[in-house]
Specification:
Layout lengths: L1 H47 L2 H4 L9 E2 L4 E2 L12 E2 L2 E2 L40 H9 L9 H7 L3 H4 L15 H13 L8
Antiparallel strand pairs: 1-2, 3-4
Helix pairs in contact: 1-6
């Protein structure tokens, strides 16, 4: 009888140990995946908070310009739909492509659908911590109703791609676009974990 009890106890202990071991491996794998996703989000944050992106993702209604983020000249305003105010729409000066290099530095750049986010979905990138930026990106009430797939699609739009070819006199985003997209994809595939505040 004692041998049967001892065997039953040994079997129980082995089962518990195996369950704990499997759980530990699973948790360890999840931790690694989450850690990789958080590292990937650091790359996403670096791009979104580069002047090429954050100059239009502003808390107020006046876009910024140049690498140092000056308030846009000519009293330019967002307007309700992000296309500028009445009488001074963005496309008044911004064409669908950059002007030729022969025009010189700091001419109004251009890309299709040149605009800011709308007044109701400002998508502010300036001054946010990684955690706050991450939570805002995933919040459909703040991001214009976009899910991860819609955000991913936006990353290949000609307006976003302009950040890597901003014209004479402007620094392009310093993370290559393919690395940015790969980082976004790793972050999104892991469920979009957010860094602590």
């Amino acid at each position: 009888m004692q041998k049967a009890t001892r065997n039953a106890l040994l079997l129980t202990c082995t089962t518990v140990f195996a369950s704990v071991f499997v759980l530990a491996l699973s948790t360890s794998g999840q931790d690694r995946a989450s850690s990789d996703a958080l590292r990937a989000f650091t790359t996403v944050q670096k791009v979104l908070q580069h002047p090429r992106c954050q100059n239009c993702h502003i808390p107020g209604d006046a876009p910024l310009q140049f690498d140092d983020g000056r308030v846009h000249a000519q009293n330019v305003k967002r307007g309700t739909n992000g296309m500028g105010s009445a009488g001074l729409h963005c496309n008044t000066c911004h064409a669908t492509q950059n002007p030729p290099a022969s025009y010189g530095a700091h001419m109004p750049p251009g890309a299709p659908d040149w605009r800011l986010p709308s007044a109701t979905h400002k998508m502010v990138f300036i001054g946010l911590s990684g955690g706050d930026l991450c939570r805002q990106l995933k919040n459909k009430a703040e991001n214009g109703g976009r899910d991860m797939a819609a955000m991913r699609e936006h990353l290949d739009s000609k307006l976003v791609l302009w950040g890597w070819d901003p014209g004479v006199g402007r620094k392009p985003v310093d993370v290559p676009h393919d690395q940015f997209v790969a980082a976004f994809d790793r972050w999104a595939k892991a469920g979009g974990p957010c860094p602590a505040p």
